[in-house]
Amino acid sequence: MLRAILDALEENGVLLRTLHCGGGGCSVGSLLKVIADTCCKTVAVYREDVARLASSIGAAAVAARALNYFTRLDAVRFDYVARSKLGDVEPDRVMCLAYRECYSRFSEVLSFVSEVYRKVLC
């Protein structure tokens, strides 16, 4: 699901270099590694108390951007969050390629199944 969201963002000109993890799942190292590898992106990790707060701050920033309070999301200063950064989880390039191949095959199967489903319903 994350890979599909990233693809949709990139197709619309939004390029992300780093994913910022917010919420309780950010304390699970193996989950962060899977996210980094499947998305082929660095995942920034923060203190757990701040990671939970950062999700709310990020949502508010996206809403403010949608309402044209900012022209760019990177114009928002997240100093409090930035000071709590613990480190980064880097993707493994070999795993990225393997996941990309699996995702490509999944997309082909999904496209085929969707077409069959449409024909059955019509």
**Number of H/I helices:** 5
Strand content: 5-15%
The overall pLDDT, averaged over residues, is: 87
Helix content: 55-70%
Our measurement of the CA-to-CA distance between the termini, rounded to an integer number of angstroms, reads 27 Å
Helix-strand string: HEHEHHEH
Description:
There is one protein chain. By secondary structure, the chain is mainly alpha-helical. It has helices at residues 2-11, 29-39, 48-66, 79-82, 93-121; strands at residues 18-20, 42-46, 85-89. The chain has a single domain (2-104), classed as ATPase, nucleotide binding domain (Nucleotidyltransferase, domain 5), CATH 3.30.420. The protein contains five helices and three strands. It has a three-stranded mixed beta sheet with strand order 1-2-3. The protein is globular and about 50 Å long.
Quick summary:
This protein has five helices and three strands; from the N terminus they run H-E-H-E-H-H-E-H. It has helices at residues 2-11, 29-39, 48-66, 79-82, 93-121; strands at 18-20, 42-46, 85-89.
